[in-house]
């Protein structure tokens, strides 16, 4: 496993052999790990509950469904610590 400080507010980890994304974590010491759903075999059956930056997704990757969505402006207004992160 390799860790990468992707910004001043978050770290990410990936498999050093195949590159699979494993987790993301805020840099705060007590922050929980956000595990990437693709590492679990059963994830194909999990319902999508929310999506952020949906307005910046490639046309080919528009996610279908009736889940919560937040565009970049709305998400950043609610999470000002993300203002330095570019997508």
Provide a descriptive summary of the structure in words:
The protein has one helix spanning 72-78; strands at residues 2-5, 10-14, 21-26, 33-35, 50-52, 68-70. With 87 residues, it is mainly β. It has two domains: 1-44, no CATH class; 47-87, no CATH class. The strands form two sheets. It has a four-stranded antiparallel beta sheet, with no helix packed on it. The longest helix has 7 residues, at 72-78. The radius of gyration is 14 Å and the shape is globular. The mean pLDDT is 87.
- Strand order, largest beta sheet: 1-2-3-4
Question: Over the alpha carbons, how many angstroms does the gyration radius reach?
Answer: 14 Å
Report the average pLDDT across residues: 87
Euclidean distance between termini CA atoms: 24 Å
Task: Count the E strands.
Answer: 6
Structural class by sheet pairing and helices: mainly beta
Shape: globular
Number of helices: 1
Instruction: Assign a percent range to the helix content.
Output: under 10%
Low-confidence stretches: none
Oligomeric state, counting identical vs distinct chains: single chain
Count of discrete domains: 2
Order of helices and strands: EEEEEEH
User: How would you characterize the largest beta sheet?
Assistant: 4 strands, antiparallel
Element layout with pairings:
Blueprint: E1 2-5, E2 10-14, E3 21-26, E4 33-35, E5 50-52, E6 68-70, H1 72-78
Parallel strand pairs: 5-6
Antiparallel strand pairs: 1-2, 2-3, 3-4
Short recap of the structure:
The protein has 87 residues and is mainly β. It is 8% helix and 28% strand.
């Amino acid at each position: 496993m390799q860790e990468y400080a992707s910004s001043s507010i978050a770290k990410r980890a990936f498999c050093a052999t195949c590159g699979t994304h494993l987790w993301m974590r805020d840099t705060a010491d007590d922050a929980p790990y956000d595990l990437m759903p693709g590492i679990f075999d059963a994830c194909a059956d999990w319902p999508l509950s929310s999506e952020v930056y949906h307005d910046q997704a490639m046309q080919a990757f528009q996610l279908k469904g009736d889940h919560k969505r937040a565009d970049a402006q709305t998400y950043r207004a609610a999470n000002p610590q993300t203002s330095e992160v570019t997508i």
